UniProtKB/TrEMBL annotation:
Molecular function in Gene Ontology: endo-1,4-beta-xylanase activity
Every GH10 domain range: 1-342
Family: Belongs to the glycosyl hydrolase 10 (cellulase F) family.
Source organism superkingdom: Bacteria
Organism: Gelidibacter salicanalis
Alphabetically ordered keywords of this record: Carbohydrate metabolism, Glycosidase, Hydrolase, Polysaccharide degradation
InterPro entries recorded: GH, GH10, GH10_AS, GH10_dom
Active site: 233
GO biological process, one term: polysaccharide catabolic process
Secretion signal span: none
Enzyme Commission (EC) number: 3.2.1.8
Name assigned to this protein: Beta-xylanase
Enzyme class: hydrolase
Length: 345
């Protein structure tokens, strides 16, 4: 059996795939990918700086391969992400007037969404537009256009492919203040008659938090808006958080921890007790997902296996993290078994 088979009547099971996985230079990962998952997200290759590096230059080679891989394997295909202040192409950072910026967003969305019309099923249209307190982030887009850029992006995407599902995607969406911000954002779009189909909760979580209750309250709040919820970037870090140890003073100076063994307690292999903790955490999370399966479209892991995870380098470089269901040797972990056991009793 597999994840995708086990949850086929509940929600899609996805994974973010890296450049080398798209290019199939990593064949073992692709074996696991195809067996276990029925949805894919490109971890980096459709971000603005990658796909639209200059005003008049689009780079579609990798994105085309990505879409072909998904089609060949009958997968749900996610586009990530149309409008995000991070990993934005440098030429866009230089645009300082709203009319030019709107034209550039229009060209960006029309060109990309139309190219993959009927092939890409779901778009992360706007990514990370909110601050932790739920107010709008003063990103480059916001500074130039105010919040108009959000409505513009959704409108353009809906016109370019009326059948694609359109998602607002962000992290820490379990937080009550940020949750209120999402509710305001979605309601405002709806009041303007603009199509939005889903909220994407990124789900970069840890063994300790967020609480199941906070996650559940967000699922219910978003579902009450009439949109579907996707968990778009699920992983569970097992490593110590520098903020917890040293408080706010740490700020951005993570370099000081780079070779600190305290910060990298499982350099070879995750301990048995941590394996058990991770398995329990994933079990609790998936129990919640199953409880609300009528509200949830998709659960996507941010990577296929631990070796691929961005958490090996964030916020401290060079650590050995173990946040996913498959280990570095592509072996299913105890957490994989605990998730499957929920369906195969
Ligand atoms: O490809 C270059 C390589 O040529 C270069 O030698 C190397 C040196 O730094 O960098 C490589 O690019 C890196 C890229 O990942 C591919 O590995 C970038 O530096 C690095 O910044 C980038 O990190 C990605 C990050 O987004 C950027 O913000 C992570 O892989 C990716 O997992 C992460 O994903 C984001 C989601 O898109 C949005 N939500 C949060 C999530 C985690 O941060």
């Amino acid at each position: 059996t597999s994840l995708k088979e086990s949850f086929k009547n509940d929600f899609l099971i996805g994974a973010a795939i890296s450049n080398s996985q798209i290019n199939q230079t990593d064949s073992l990962t692709n074996t696991v990918l195809i067996k276990e998952f029925n949805s894919i997200t490109p971890e980096n290759d459709m971000k603005w700086e990658q796909i639209h590096p200059q005003k008049d230059t689009f780079y579609f080679d990798v994105a085309d391969k990505y879409v072909a891989l998904g089609q060949k394997n009958n997968m749900n295909i996610v586009g990530h992400t149309l409008v995000w202040h991070s990993q934005l192409a440098p030429w866009m950072q230089d645009v300082k007037d709203s009319i030019t910026m709107a034209k550039n967003i229009e060209n960006h969305i029309n060109t990309i969404v139309k190219r993959y019309k009927g092939k890409i099923d779901t778009w992360d249209v706007v990514n990370e537009a909110l601050n932790e307190d739920g107010s709008l982030r003063t990103s480059h887009f916001y500074e130039v256009m105010g919040d108009n850029y959000i409505a513009l992006a959704f409108n353009l995407a809906a016109k370019a492919d009326p059948d694609a599902k359109l998602v607002y995607n962000d992290y820490n969406l379990w937080k009550p203040e940020k949750r209120a911000g999402v509710v305001r954002l979605v309601k405002k779009l709806q009041e303007q008659g603009i199509k939005i189909d889903g909220v994407g909760m990124q789900a970069h979580w840890s063994l300790e938090g967020p609480s199941i209750e906070d996650i559940e309250n967000s699922i219910i709040a978003y579902s009450n808006l009439g949109v579907k919820i996707s968990f778009t970037e699920l992983d569970v870090t097992v490593l110590p958080n520098p903020w917890d140890l040293n408080g706010a003073a740490v700020e951005q100076s993570y370099e000081q921890f780079e070779n600190d063994p305290k910060m990298n307690p499982y350099p070879e292999k995750l301990s048995d007790s941590a394996q058990t903790q991770l398995a329990k955490r994933y079990e609790d999370i998936f129990k919640l997902f199953l409880k609300h399966k009528d509200k949830i479209d998709r659960v996507t892991f941010w990577g296929v296996n631990d070796g691929q995870s961005w958490l090996n380098n964030w916020p401290i470089k060079g650590r050995t993290n173990h946040p996913l269901l498959f280990d570095r040797n592509y072996e299913p972990k105890k957490a994989y078994l605990s998730v499957l056991a929920l369906k195969n009793k």
